[in-house]
Predict the structure.
Amino acid sequence: NPDLYTITLSTKSNADVTLSPDNTRGGELAARHFHAMGHRHVAVHMSESHPTRMERYKAFYAEMKWLAPECRIDIVGQSLSQNTDAVLRNYFDSADPAPTALFFLAGSFAENYLNELANADPERFRDLSIMTFDRPQDLEFRELHYDFDRVEFVSRELLDWAEYYITNRPMMKKRSPIHTTIDVHLVVTGSVR
């Protein structure tokens, strides 16, 4: 599944296990990177109100406002029924001033942006810095067709931890949640400048 972000396991041993990338740290890494590169007006692509993406956004917003209280962060909201190209075109047609950077909380939308918008109007988006929160090439899923700066995690680690918890069931005396986060790191390719 190319959209694998979170795994939840309900067990008979009174433990509810949730596995996900460290979305808080990832949002903070993205904010620090944009801030270090001088960006103070960032548009954030938000698709639906997915809890994983909301964690990323909240951490990004908090860190950017901590680093630069005067910064402007615009949400570019997209519902399931909308097309990424149309949503971004509408946003950029009305944004005044235009942002200097665009952060995709899920990488598949960055690929839509590249295919549907940036390639159709390269001059308009030439100076726009782009960043995503994504997975590296993962042969089990699919290859990325872009090389944007990104906060990255490895899906295989989610599956490894799921296998661990299935094989080694936690023993709890009362119902308890266990949330395990996997490491994320910043990959700089030069798309944020």
Observations:
- The chain has a mean pLDDT of 85.
